[in-house]
Amino acid sequence: MSDNDQRKAALDATKARLIKEGELYRVGVLASKHNVANALHPDVLLHGAVDLAVGTAQTRLAGLIGGTAAAAGAGGLLANYKTIMPIAMSIGSFISRKKLVKPAIGVGAVLAAIGAYIYKRKQSGSL
Questions:
Q1: 21: which DSSP letter?
Q2: Angle CA(60)–CA(65)–CA(70) in degrees, nearest 5?
Q3: What is the torsion angle, in degrees rounded to the nearest 10, for the CA atoms of residue 79, residue 84, residue 86 and residue 90?
Q4: pLDDT digits (tens, 9 = 90+) for 53-99
Q5: pTM of the entire structure?
Q6: Do the Cβ atoms of 83 and 66 come closer than 8 Å?
């Protein structure tokens, strides 16, 4: 093989590699465009906003009660009743002052039903 043939083979290999890299780059740009378009749908934006709000509320509540939300769980929250009771009394006082007892009971019943449903699904393994 002559020196000229070796250069031509190396040039062809480099050219093929560059063409493949260009194809991969174009596919990556197209995937990014689709991801951005999907992320701008209203339902995806709302879901992200709700996730952010829930995370912020959990963090603030954990800081207020003293501990981390992940480590505390329901058992940790119930164990720290000395910190929770003033907050619960304030909430109860607000509800009774504004005459929101019946709506609060209704909301509590709905939340309890949702919690029972989620617990049941979690126990059956379908969640």
A1: H
A2: 70
A3: -140
A4: 888 888 877 777 665 544 545 555 555 677 777 888 888 899 888 88
A5: 0.39
A6: yes
